[in-house]
Amino acid sequence: MFEEEHDLPAHWPSSLADAADKIDKRLGRLGSVASESNHATEQTAIDQCENELRDLVEWIPEVAADTDLSEVQWLPIYELSEVMREHLSRGDVSALNIKEDFRRLQALLVEYATLLPSSTATPLEEEPSSVELEWPGPVSSETVEAEASSGEQS
Question: What is the pTM of this model?
Answer without folding.
Answer: 0.71
